[in-house]
């Protein structure tokens, strides 16, 4: 077994972590120029870390070589300026380990590993899955619980058991259940970071002791999301309430259809990326264009 006491990198990040889209041309090819421009924009806007090839980055429709290439591209661009959190989850433990080892080779700072979807393992199976990955991979591991997508739910007791592993340093809680998140924060070891994965409730979770937000909304308003997370970390309730109300409709509009359909349309609408998206995902239905455009206009940032 790997020496689990050693970590070759750290991931002590607080604030807004963008769950970055993977920009594509109209034919579905990855648009590397647009990707670099997005990375530069986030670096200048106060984003605390880059989440590459997660759900929002269309990990499900990238090939394994493309997956690794995007992670490597982000890491080479970063040169240590901003941490790269690589999506490396799979519903096969062996595949998740292979993707995670590839992320290490590509230069990622940490791995984001989703609960195994479709085959629906037990709590014991999920614990064994994540421990096996952490045993095999030398960089920090961030667990990712999003039962609305995976149909499995890593409960708090299982998460707490996994936090005993020295390479498991954080969890992305995308349940949107604030009471449950607060319970996990209260019972987790001090060094464990609990991140929100739900933009609508993220600030409240941070004010309960969370470390930040792994955010879809940050793709289109990175400065505002960084400001919101910082206000929540500082306990500035008035600022949190003001920003949260201003972006409430945008948070909702970005889920009018399955993520990342709306957020990619929003970025194309504002000229940041092209309109490419890969099947089985399809472009945003025309019936939602006006609603999302209005929500974007209400939250405009200075470039």
UniProtKB/TrEMBL annotation:
SMART domains per UniProt:
DHDPS (SM01130)
> MF terms per GO, please?
4-hydroxy-tetrahydrodipicolinate synthase activity
Enzyme Commission (EC) number: 4.3.3.7
Catalytic residue list: 144 (proton donor/acceptor), 172 (schiff-base intermediate with substrate)
Q: Read off the InterPro entries from this record.
A: Aldolase_TIM, DapA, DapA-like, Schiff_base-form_aldolases_AS
Main subcellular location of this protein, as a coarse class: cytoplasm
Q: Which residues cross the membrane?
A: none
Q: Name one Pfam family in it.
A: DHDPS
- Which pathway does it serve? Amino-acid biosynthesis; L-lysine biosynthesis via DAP pathway; (S)-tetrahydrodipicolinate from L-aspartate: step 3/4
| Keywords noted in UniProt | Amino-acid biosynthesis, Cytoplasm, Diaminopimelate biosynthesis, Lyase, Lysine biosynthesis, Schiff base
Q: Where in the cell is it found?
A: Cytoplasm
Output the GO biological process annotations, alphabetical, semicolon-separated. Answer: diaminopimelate biosynthetic process; lysine biosynthetic process via diaminopimelate
**GO CC annotations?**
cytosol
Quick check: keyword ATP-binding in the entry? no
The chemistry this enzyme catalyses reads: L-aspartate 4-semialdehyde + pyruvate = (2S,4S)-4-hydroxy-2,3,4,5-tetrahydrodipicolinate + H2O + H(+)
Top-level class of the enzyme under EC nomenclature: lyase
Annotated site residues (Part of a proton relay during catalysis) in this chain: 55, 118
Q: Where does pyruvate bind?
A: 56, 214
> Where is the site labelled L-lysine inhibitor binding?
60, 91, 95, 117
Instruction: Say what the protein does.
Output: Catalyzes the condensation of (S)-aspartate-beta-semialdehyde [(S)-ASA] and pyruvate to 4-hydroxy-tetrahydrodipicolinate (HTPA).
The annotated subunit structure for this chain is: Homotetramer; dimer of dimers.
Q: Which family does it belong to?
A: Belongs to the DapA family.
Task: State the name under which the record lists this protein.
Answer: 4-hydroxy-tetrahydrodipicolinate synthase
Source organism per UniProt? Aequoribacter fuscus
